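Revision sheet: structure tokens.
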Amino acid sequence: MLKLDQARVLDRIIENVEKVMVGKRQIIEKTLVALLAQGHILFEDVPGVGKTRMVKALSRSINGVFKRIQFTPDLLPTDVIGVSIYNQKTMEFEFKSGPIMTNILLADEINRTSPKTQSALLEAMEEQTITVDGATYRLDKPFMVMATQNPIEYEGTYPLPEAQMDRFMLKLHLGYPNQVDEVEILSRTMITENIDTLSPVCTSEDIVKLQKQVSQIYVSQALKEYMVSICQKTREHQDVLLGVSPRGTVAFYRAVQALAFIRGRDFVTPDDLKELAVEVLSHRLVLKGEARFEGVQPSEIIQQIIERVAVPVVREQRKGSK
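Predicted:
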């Protein structure tokens, strides 16, 4: 089980973000899943539902370095990662880092820039490094990209390439608040808990320590096989052109470890897999043309597979158990 102080850190982060995000506890928890599992998040929703607010509140809560890039059609890769500039005094090139040198990077409206600029994030998201003019620079820990995008049917957007989508651990949808929550939002704007008034509840170093503990959460052999079976079924589905990649399977594994950790357990259960399957796997599917034409949704395919794959009986719950 989690130590009391560790559990308290997670509770305080959630409570802090809830001060400015009404009725979104489940989304906040899944955001923490990605952070603790060293993953990245893509928020896809219509404008005005609080995507940017969520990212800023989390970054303030962990006292990490926060930077924001507003993605636009004229944005260049060097605007993201930085550029080498020749210094006439020293007669040497000096690297001027871009906003990617941070703990939490908000890639706002990422699908409004060109695929060339979107691809500037690929190395950083996968390896936590950037390469400029043959020199490699390591990013600080923790490092997390939290991107927002409007639905691709909106004008002036570019669909994210498959390689980019595959690097996001979770794709989340905030959705509109219900009536009660929206009334509460109006009430809070009058008295308000502003994001700028939020105080940190932990440090970025605390998050790095928790990330190391998450990687030790136990996953039984039966659950590993269950996880792989789900991913393999996506590659065999009649409506799917490209199924979940091995990178996606690894992301699934790390995400369920983090969810178990947040739930206060040192082992993963089948319910953890079921809870995260859609958010972790569905955005990695590339559907066949006829399936898209018929309106088939990737999330529906993942749900079908979850229902059809037999759930294992897990007797082992932690290392050393018999």
